[in-house]
């Protein structure tokens, strides 16, 4: 019963958070100075044309009503129409979303595996050379923005070695086969930055757990090192890392904006930059809300996984 | 007299000299000094184009070569931290001041205020920083003040949570109860009782926010929504010179190295302070 309550409360908070986030994004975009119709039509537009566009965009109605309309549509998967292509936003974003999913999928699988392994090695060899090397590299990974990693990778692997293409020429409707040769460099750039944070968290966590009394006890009982590590230490070390992993998966939605634009990769990051240039507000609003939704869902999953892994959390009073 | 006896002397902030802390402070200091002294150090004007010397490699006249407009890369790198550092320093200061006050206030008040604020912060946190900044830049333009305020709003929530957690362990202590019993209000309690005890947490957070905001601002400049040409700025330089990567790689690599020294410095400083004061840096993933 307590478990159901705990899950219910987290679900409720998550829904509330997403709703508030949509409101914040809406308010931020409403802060747009000047009249949107005038900006779209140019300074020389006749008042009649402006009024007509206002009416067709629904801009002549109060802001709260437009927000509720947008929200109602969004709940049914209707995020309005792109101001540029006149396509429904979901149709417009569909191909881009799929491409980003391909990129993110590779990064998540490769990045999490790599960083967990490196984090455990660093934690187990604390202050000796493997740890110093891994910690040093991850500090560097945290300290350079995605666009610099991406640029250096282009210099090394696309220009000097010519192994991978430097830019993607395929459009949003490219097949997976067409995208596959070009996906590796952006994936490597994102992995390098994402791994840094997870490695650091896993290292700290492994160090904490390895000095815990139950691990010492397991050792004293004469269990093999492998058994101590995999049965006793790692499951507990993984717990605090879960949230960092969730946050980093959500961060990918932002990280792809920069990395995709370096490689001209046709994902939602590229779509977002186009939308900013064209002031395509419905598309912009959709991507920002999509980012918030990803963040909340990832955190919710991490919380649920923690509940599942650790029965001690199933008591109330830990939320907030 | 009993009141005075109850009050605990604030811990003094002493930092044992750790090598990582010293290296970090040195790197940050170096970047600040170079940015301030750029007019004295730079051999050429950072913005004056010179078509005759365009796209040159390293030479005795131009140590790091020139870019496509013939501007000296070394001079531009020396000036290049000014924009990002000014913006991130202002934004980090604003974030820390606002975050500390709100964090202490919500830890002190608790109740519905705390509940409402936490839910609001969650929703701000949920929009990835770069997406939030792009939305704001679309709506309000990419002026320096807009970027400073937007980064403050984006990075404040995580800081408020950290300060709130640190302050929660203080507001329950006897000397705060005593101060409340004396009839002191929120401000005197925050300044005299809470603030001195969370100063180390706040310092670490300041260094980390400064590094994240610098990363964010450089990324924005790289995408074309931060510093405007011909401003010398590291992020903007990378995006300008990227197409010449095969011809004059130094013009791209030099600003990357410069940016990395600043951020590595800030991170080492944050790590050093945190380790010296025994603070858990669990927030490592909250960008």
3D architecture notes:
The complex is a heterodimer of chains A (320) and B (287). Chain A has 320 residues and is mostly helical. Chain A is built from 13 helices and no strands. Chain A has helices at 2-30, 36-41, 47-57, 63-75, 89-124, 129-143, 146-160, 176-179, 184-210, 213-220, 225-263, 268-278, 281-309. In chain A, α5 packs across α12 (268-278) and α12 (268-278) runs antiparallel to α13 (281-309). The longest helix of chain A is centred in the C-terminal third of the chain and has 39 residues, at 225-263. Chain A is globular, with a radius of gyration of 24 Å. The model of chain A has no long low-confidence stretch (mean pLDDT 81). Chain B is mostly helical. In chain B, 71% of the residues lie in helices and 0% in strands. Chain B has helices at 2-6, 19-41, 73-79, 81-109, 111-126, 129-140, 144-171, 174-181, 186-223, 234-241, 249-277. In chain B, α4 (81-109) runs antiparallel to α9 and α9 runs antiparallel to α11. The longest helix of chain B is centred in the C-terminal third of the chain and has 38 residues, at 186-223. Chain B is elongated. The termini of chain B are far apart. Mean pLDDT of chain B is 83; it is low at 1-10 and 282-287.
